[in-house]
Amino acid sequence: MRRKPESEFVLDSPGGLSARAQRFLAAEAVRVVEDPGPSDAELRERMAELYGTVDEDFLVLLRSVQRRYLGLSYDSGYFDGSRVTYSPTFDPEPGDTDLEILYAVSMEANVGASLTDKGQVEVGFDQWGLMEFDSLDNVIESDALFALSKRFQVSEVSFRNLAADAVRSSLAADSELGLTEVPEAGGRYSRASAKSRGCPA
Q: Concatenated DSSP letters for 59-75?
């Protein structure tokens, strides 16, 4: 009898995430039903019509992101306590110029995250978007650290949104408090730090 392949969904196969992030998902996250959008055949037809070519690498990225994250839902500290649902989809329309996975992280408020054709996370929408994380795993790591900060004193976990030229001084201030940077929970414009002792990794 052939063994059924293991699910690639992040709650079933959290490989690559820190132990802290895995504990966070186990305690806080659920899987909800989300629509993956048009079929591959439909998307190939639309891409050929709208872009003049079919980007197979992008379709592979879309489906791999959907297999890992589609339907993940939890309360997000990074997004100000909003309930977020990972709903990555691609549904191109006339006038679209970029290949972009929309609603990678969605919520009721007018903010969220999309993915570039390289899988990088852009927080916000359209001209207000900010390229912040390298992957959706980094968003989960950040939310895991936010959740941890609720259970410890404020000084034990630090989040800073700073311009690049101010990062060095903020990390120096964190080190004076005994905090060390947690790179996987930070992004291009945000830094996360935590106490190395008494604070679960």
A: HHHHHHHHHHHTTEEEE
pLDDT of residue 132: 84
Q: What is the pTM of this model?
A: 0.79
* Cβ-contact 145, 194 below 8 angstroms: yes
The domains of the chain are located at 19-140, 153-195
| Residue 102 phi, psi dihedral angles, 5° rounding | -85, 160
- Please tell me the least confidently modeled range out of 2-11, 86-95, 114-123, 175-184: 175-184
Question: Strand 157-161 relative to strand 121-123: parallel, antiparallel, unpaired?
Answer: unpaired
Residue 130: phi and psi, rounded to 5, are: -130, 120
Question: In this structure, are residues 29 and 72 in contact, taking their beta carbons and an 8 Å threshold?
Answer: yes
Token code pair at residue 2: 């052939």
